[in-house]
Specification:
Number of strands of chain A: 41
Structural class of chain B: mainly alpha
Largest sheet of chain A: 7 strands, mixed
CATH architecture of chain B: Up-down Bundle
Shape of chain B: globular
Distance between the termini of chain B: 23 Å
Oligomer: heterodimer
Distance between the termini of chain A: 72 Å
Number of helices of chain B: 17
CATH architecture of one domain in chain A: 2-Layer Sandwich
CATH class of chain B: Mainly Alpha
Helix content of chain A: 25-40%
Structural class of chain A: alpha/beta
Radius of gyration of chain A: 29 Å
Number of strands of chain B: 0
CATH topology of one domain in chain A: Alpha-Beta Plaits
Number of helices of chain A: 35
Number of domains of chain B: 1
């Protein structure tokens, strides 16, 4: 076997590919596009006028009035709350029929009858079942350092759009189960983002394509190679003029070398990089500003004034994990050490990055360039002339003044979805303010071959249309789904004679290609990639490919000449393995004698030491002329990467689908985001289905009214509406690519919005009921203040509600925690609401996914949730995030009421759940003031799918139907550390245990440790004056507390 | 059977002016009483009406079978419960059914001890109703658990792992309270049946009846020893049952009162629940007895006097319940606790306000009509009022369970609760079960205590007042 030849990776053939062929039952090939289930679409008679009696009707005018009239800090949760319209009608009309659909649902009824019949018939037979014999096989050769029950960690990297995230992968007996950040990797520093956390589920996705197919028939890879190699031979004469290779952005040096060698054989062949989203404008912006491609790297910890022009610094940007850390380090409050930096966010749609800003300004997409130009002009960029600027002068002037006062410590960042001009202006502003080298550095591009990708793609379209493309190999991208709507990719691309697709899924593009080769997941392949600032990581496999998959490297090796008698002996053939490709390349790069040592160290560390790209000094060539992309009037639309499913490549990852959008709190769907004023103007209500028409292309979606969205502009998230992604992604949301054209990739105008008179249920974990916003204030649920308020009274947060003393109870303190006393804090100053912790928790604790229908019934299972609250008016609300999980109360109300003692306290103060004792009365959840307990109302856990079983953490019980569950402070990790410490006869050190959420948090907002240890980080955090207990007045003595958020607003704007 | 004890308990000792009528219509003799009641069981033909009623009730009961089956197949998630509303229809129904049972116990135990002999003609029926209601109630806590097959873990069964229930949990108290209640009620009911079953045994002509009633009669021969022991046993059981009237619903109320949920955590719950239970119990007795009395011509034994007395008790307990509602609202305001105050505002004005106001109408406004003797003595109006009270008491539990949970402490968790079709089927199914049991009961056992009615027979000299209802032909015989 290959095992011997692979170093470091604990590969064990857990499953042979043969045994997995039938996992899915039937292949996805030929599956018709999935339309929305009928039961989701509730047809109502068209309502031409605003339905006053509609219980969900929002009186937007009065909402805005109420918010404007409100005095003092006024937190609110959603628009309905302010509107105060009640759901009486809703209750009266819908009380019974609402879920009568289950009975109406033919499928459900038939299944039910079938099941009833079958269960009666089988009831007696059940007892006769003999458990199948399972043999336990011992290792023939014991792998080194594998101790059953003890995980091993391997450094690797997870590339998204080619850009690496440094990771450590936890491996149990050869199964990768959990992703952690690589502490030594500059893009990670030990943390990860939500997408990376969820990548382990992507590996085990049961809907992954599993076999090589030719015309949807199963073939072997060898038969592909035979045909392909022969085909290539025919192109040797034309120098490969008819060959096109389409990949995502490539930062991998090895892939670059492979392309070079392909071009040696086929000089006329073309390699096109294509991505629907990504750093197109970043590249173009630097070219525009400096005359050459460059890669800007931001140093947020050095920025005293930070301005984001739609830059999703803590979201979709490749360096977001590092950026969140750097920013949070400036926001932490310790004693009298308060945040001194200030963050201004100018956004075309609310993001969780903007939510952290001290000042947030929503502007229409068409105004962004003008804004940037006006800003450039105001800070003295030569040649920038301010045109009309619609921004309020007070706000703008204060910003300009702040920037000018912080020359050299200010930073303006443009977002990926802004035009190259805005990027160039941002670079010019940074240069003018002397920030280059201090808060922003430029390196050579991380891409192997930085190009104008869309221009290349259009050229490919022309070639295809002209019929000059003979062989089109598409690797890892899905243009049939996400190509700009006006290019008519589907028709033109089928003019290529031979279409080869290599992808993780039998996706939309695979459907239209003759050959489909399954692509390896980054956790099962060798590779290399650069991170956002250039550091190269070696990607090493954690497991042998589960299916007959090939990596990009192996696919490109297919272009190698055949090995035969004429060729040199050491020439690699088309069958070259990924490992050989990577190692051969790096051996060529480092031909030192101690290559083996270097190689082992590099693979072990997860990065090549000193491979970060050097910074370059670049001179701004001048201010770009106006792009001329002015608004054509009417409604504007902006296209955004979804924070989790990104461009759609993660659409089938159910963890990411069920992860609530940090701002809209929507799961399983995207929506047409409109502001309150626009909704009022267009007479739209939440969940109204509308048709969007943009440049003749249409798509239908549901409306979500989003506070903070700029007026007269709608925002849509891309990546949804997949038809061939798999069970999780199919039919989730609508495909906004259908109205995204090549001349309006980031935003467009003149959008027509037509109400369809239907509604569509959106599963938001933030339900829209009316509540009294007073409630939030009285209860002191979310607490924040300004730096000035903190200086005046550092204890302001604690004083917001009564804080009972520990002696203030009729219950005697029967137990004193003399050993460990575990505790946790959430620092709301640092938390960016990115949800990485939520996925980390899901991955660590085997938490089930429930699906949209169950989310609509509010039965989601996340042990950790991030509540979102608003403050201020509906146009520009301040947004706050509050992670909530089990508080491990010392006087836990849940424990008292459990009739079977299934939830009990332990000696360290943990509130434990004994799953196998739980009978499921749900009394504990009822009595939990934080509502953090989660119940398996149905059989949510997938016990059937073989591949999913591999993902599970063996240290955590997999829960079944009828059992309550909740956060345990990752008790498995505590126990692990305890056992280690006891064996070594010592106490557990501070920081020795990190909970899954704490480890994942990019901003280090979560602190966990032993409160009894006065030197621990947690003990210090609890002493902070901003430390407050949520619902502390109930005297449940929660072990988890919060550090209230401080904002640092500009007094000139606030005043 | 002519014990001194009970013969003293003649209604004539009460001033005539407050009496609406006699407890037994005039003209009955010992023989006619026995014949009339025993006839229903022994000789009456199976009527189409009864058959139809049983058929309908049995059909409705199948909803319970189907929905419980579906629940066991799929899980408790087929109901509308969610987080935060972890308890829905199941607990609402449980409390409602348990409450209904209380009237039976009150009638059989407390009124016996208080020498209220008018109870003699309704106690058998009310006790049967108690048993069936408790059986209905008992299903819900089991079905509502996530793993019903493990619900027995709530019972203190010695096991190898020395695992006991968690005795601080009110749910565990429930197990003891309800099982005790069921046991005592069953024994009391059965002991009370023995002399009557013996009468049936003696009267029956068919062999199978003789055998079955013979076995059930436990060899009762009516000797003085038997009677003496019987009296003692009844008094003892009445003594045992009496605290149960108070304790069972007190403990049920602890399910809520011990929780910290605003709207549950209140000290008024025990008395308020007990009053509510008796209130709903009497309403249910009226609801059932009025038609049964009519169809089986039992107006002679269940007279206007009985209906009148029960109406008065309904009114009295209704007033206690009204006081409870008032105090809940008062506490919300007076405590100046933000959670309590919000809870009461949310009940009155929140999304479930229609349920709250309907309950106020059903439970406070409607019973006020019972102040009027004209309404108390109008069988049909009384029946309608009893129905409304039944609905109101169900809504009361719905309001307590659901509106308290759906908006508790953290607004981020606030959600709505909507019952599913399976919630409704399960509930309606238990109604079917209850009615099926009642239909069967009236035909296989004497629905009115024969010997106790015989004890009530007035001596002819005592009948002085004109009677409201004319003796039927049969009784004049």
């Amino acid at each position: 076997m290959e095992l011997a030849s692979i170093e470091h990776a604990p590969i064990e053939l857990v499953m042979t590919s043969e045994s997995n062929d039938n996992l899915l039952g039937k292949p996805l090939v030929g599956t018709p596009p999935v339309t929305l289930p009928g039961s989701l679409v509730r047809t109502i008679s068209p309502a031409p006028k605003p339905a006053v009696n509609d219980p969900n009707h929002l009186d937007l005018a009065s909402i805005r009035e109420k918010l404007d009239a409100a005095k003092g800090p006024n937190y609110w949760r959603c628009l309905d709350e302010i509107a105060g319209t009640e759901g009486f009608q809703d209750f009266l009309h819908r009380e019974f029929p609402r879920q009568a659909s289950e009975w109406e649902d033919v499928e459900g009824r038939r299944n039910f009858l079938k099941l009833m019949g079958a269960s009666l018939a089988l009831a007696g037979l059940g007892a006769c079942t003999r458990q199948p014999t399972e043999n336990i096989m011992p290792y023939v050769n014991q792998p080194e350092s594998v101790i059953p029950g003890r995980p091993l960690y391997y450094a690797s990297a997870f590339p998204v759009s080619g850009v690496a995230r440094g990771i450590l992968v936890e491996s149990h007996m050869g199964r990768p189960t959990k992703i952690e950040g690589n502490p030594e990797h500059p893009a990670s520093l030990g943390s990860t983002d939500a997408t990376t956390q969820a990548s382990v589920l992507g590996l085990y996705d049961p809907d992954r394509s599993q076999t090589v197919t030719y015309l949807h028939e199963i073939k072997s890879y060898a038969s592909f190679l035979t045909q392909f190699v022969d085909l290539l031979k025919q192109h040797d004469q034309t120098q490969g003029a008819g060959i096109r290779i389409l990949t995502e952005t490539v930062t991998s040096p090895t892939l670059g070398a492979q392309f070079k060698s392909i071009q040696q054989r086929f000089p006329a062949a073309k390699w096109i990089q294509y991505e629907p989203l990504g750093a197109h404008s970043v590249r173009a912006g630097t070219k525009l500003a400096f005359g050459q491609y460059a890669n800007p790297v931001y140093m947020l910890d050095a920025a005293d004034v930070l301005v984001s022009l739609d830059a999703d610094l803590f979201g979709a940007m490749p360096g977001s994990v590092r950026y969140a850390r750097d920013y949070a380090n400036r926001r932490r409050v310790t004693g009298s050490n308060v945040p001194t930096n200030r963050f201004y966010a100018v956004e075309t749609t609310p993001t969780h990055t903007g939510a952290k800003a001290d000042h947030r300004l929503p502007i229409k997409p068409s105004e962004m360039e003008n804004f940037a130009r006006a800003l450039a002009s105001a800070v003295g960029v030569a040649g920038a002339t301010s045109t009309s600027n619609a921004i309020e002068a007070k706000w703008f002037n204060a910003l300009v003044k702040d920037l000018q006062e912080h020359k050299g410590t200010s930073l303006v960042v443009a977002g990926d979805n802004q035009s190259p001009e805005v990027h160039a202006l941002a670079h010019a502003i940074n240069a003018a303010l002397g920030s280059v080298g201090k808060t922003v550095a430029y390196t050579d591009p991380i891409e192997v071959n930085p190009t104008d990708q869309f221009a290349d793609f259009k050229a490919l379209m022309a070639d295809l249309d002209a019929g000059s493309v003979d062989v089109l190999m598409i690797i890892g991208v899905n243009p049939v789904y996400d190509a700009p709507a006006d290019l008519d990719f589907v028709t033109k691309f089928q003019k290529a004679r031979m279409r080869v697709h290599c992808g993780m899924f039998n996706d939309e593009t695979a459907q239209l290609c003759q050959w489909h080769i399954p692509q390896s997941h980054p956790l099962e392949m060798w590779g290399d990639a650069r991170s956002y600032e250039g550091t190269i990581s070696i990607i090493q496999p954690l497991i042998a490919p589960l299916y007959q998959s090939r990596s990009t490297y192996e696919m490109l090796a297919a272009f190698n000449r055949e090995v035969n008698e004429q060729s040199p002996a050491d020439q690699p053939g088309p069958q070259q393995s990924g490992y050989e490709v990577i190692r051969a390349y790096w051996q060529g790069q480092k031909p030192a004698a101690d290559f083996d040592t270097w190689w082992k160290k590099s693979v072990h560390d997860g990065l090549l030491a000193g491979s970060a790209l050097p910074t370059r000094v670049l001179a701004v060539k001048g201010v770009p002329s106006a792009s001329g992309a002015a608004s054509g009037g009417g409604l504007e639309i902006s296209f955004h990467a979804d924070p989790y499913v990104y461009d759609g490549q993660f659409a089938n990852n159910s963890w990411l689908q069920e992860l609530p959008n940090p701002v809209t709190r929507l799961t399983w769907d995207n929506a047409v985001l409109v502001s309150t004023a626009t909704a009022q103007k267009l007479n739209l209500q939440v969940e109204d289905r509308v048709e969007l028409r943009h440049q003749g292309h249409t798509v239908k979606g549901a409306v979500w009214i989003q506070p903070g969205q700029p007026n007269d502009s709608i925002a849509v998230h891309l990546g949804f509406g997949r038809t061939h992604s798999g069970r999780a992604g199919n039919g989730a949301g609508f495909n906004a690519y259908r109205i995204r054209t090549s001349n309006a990739l980031n935003w467009g105008s003149g959008v027509e919005l037509k109400k369809l008179g239907e509604t569509f249920k959106l599963a938001s974990v933030q339900k829209h009921f009316m509540i009294d916003s007073q409630v939030l204030n009285e209860r002191g649920v979310v607490r924040s203040g300004t730096v000035a308020e903190y200086k005046k009274d550092p204890e302001f947060a604690r004083k917001m509600t009564e804080q009972p003393g520990t002696g203030n109870t009729i219950y005697p303190q029967t137990w004193t925690y003399e050993g460990y006393a575990w505790g946790m804090t959430f620092d709301q100053n640092a938390c960016t609401g990115c949800n990485a912790c939520v996925v980390a928790c899901q991955s660590e604790n085997n938490i089930a996914v429930v699906g949209k229908e169950q989310v609509l019934k509010t039965r989601e299972m996340h042990w950790l949730r991030i509540d979102r609250y608003y403050k201020g008016n509906a146009d520009v609300p301040e947004t706050f995030f509050q992670p909530v999980t089990c508080m491990q109360c010392e006087q836990a109300p849940c424990e008292l009421v459990c009739p079977v003692a299934a939830t009990e306290h332990d000696q360290d103060g943990l509130n434990n759940m004994v799953y196998n004792r739980c009978v499921g009365t749900r009394y504990c959840s009822n009595n939990c003031p934080y509502k953090v307990r989660r119940f398996n109302f149905l059989l949510f856990t997938d016990w059937e799918t073989e591949s999913i079983k591999l993902q599970r953490n063996p240290d955590v019980t997999v829960r079944s139907r009828g059992v309550m569950e909740k956060c345990t402070y990752c008790i498995q990790r505590i126990s692990y550390a305890k056992i280690n410490a006891e064996r070594e006869d010592r106490k557990i050190q501070d920081g020795e245990i990190t909970t899954a959420c704490e480890a994942a948090c990019p901003a280090r907002a979560i602190t966990f440790g032993d409160i009894n240890d006065p030197n621990s980080r947690i003990a210090k955090a609890k002493k902070e004056q901003l430390n407050y207990a949520l619902l502390g007045e109930l005297n449940t003595r929660p072990r988890t507390t919060y550090l209230a958020e401080l904002r640092n607003p500009n007094p000139e704007i606030e005043g | 059977m002519e014990t001194q004890d009970l013969s003293k308990a003649q209604p004539v000792e009460l001033p005539d002016t407050i009496q609406v009528g006699p407890v037994v219509a005039p003209g009955h003799t010992l023989a006619t009483v026995t014949d009339k009641i025993a006839n229903v069981v022994l000789r009456r033909k199976i009527g189409l009406g009864w058959l139809f009623g049983l058929f309908v009730a049995f059909g409705v009961m199948q909803l319970l079978v189907v929905s419980a089956g579906w629940l066991l197949v799929k899980g408790v998630g087929v109901w509308g419960i969610n987080i935060p509303v972890g308890w829905g229809f199941a607990i609402v129904n449980f409390v409602w059914w348990i409450g209904i049972g209380h009237a039976g116990t009150l009638i059989s135990a407390i009124l016996l001890l208080l020498n209220q002999s008018w109870r003699n003609s309704i106690n058998r029926f009310a006790e049967a109703m108690t048993l069936f209601a408790v059986a209905c109630a008992g299903m819900f806590p089991v079905l509502h658990t996530g793993r019903p097959w493990l619900a027995y873990w709530l019972m203190p069964i010695p096991n190898t792992m020395s695992l006991w229930p968690q005795f601080r949990s009110p749910l565990d108290w429930d197990v003891f309270a309800v099982s005790t209640y069921l046991t005592i009620s069953l024994v009391f009911w059965y002991v009370g049946l023995i002399p009557d079953v013996a009468s049936l045994r003696d009267q029956s002509k068919k062999r199978y009846q003789q055998v079955i009633f013979g076995m059930l009669a436990l060899g009762w021969r009516g000797s003085a020893f038997h009677w003496a022991r019987y009296e003692k046993a009844c008094l003892l059981l009445a003594g045992l049952s009496t605290p149960l009237v108070v304790s069972v619903h007190t403990i049920v109320s602890f399910d809520f009162a011990v929780g910290i949920v605003p709207g549950w955590h209140t000290t008024i719950f025990p008395p308020y629940f007990v009053a509510g239970a008796i209130y709903s119990g009497f309403a249910m007795v009226l609801t059932l007895m009025i038609p049964v009395r009519k169809f089986y011509g039992m107006e002679d034994f269940i007279t206007m006097r009985h209906l009148n007395n029960m109406a008065k008790l309904t009114l009295a307990t209704g007033m206690v319940v009204a006081y409870g509602y008032m105090m809940e609202a008062f506490y919300g305001w007076y405590s100046s606790n933000t959670y309590e105050f919000f809870m009461i505002k949310n009940r009155m004005l929140g999304p479930y306000a229609p349920a709250y106001w309907t309950l106020i109408f059903c439970n406070i406004i409607t019973p006020q009509f019972l102040w009027f003797k004209r309404i108390r003595t109008s069988v049909f109006k009384l029946w309608i009022i009893s129905l409304i009270v039944n609905v109101g008491m169900w809504l009361e539990r719905f309001v307590i369970v659901v509106t308290s949970l759906h908006r508790d402490f953290l607004p981020s968790s606030w959600q709505m609760y909507y019952p599913t079709i399976w919630d409704i089927f399960t509930y309606v199914g238990t109604l079917g079960f209850f009615m099926t049991a009642i239909f069967l009961f009236v035909r296989v056992l004497p629905m009115i205590s024969i010997f106790e009615i015989r004890m009530l027979l007035p001596s002819p000299m005592r009948v002085t007042k004109p009677r409201l209802s004319e003796p039927t032909k049969e009784s004049a015989r």
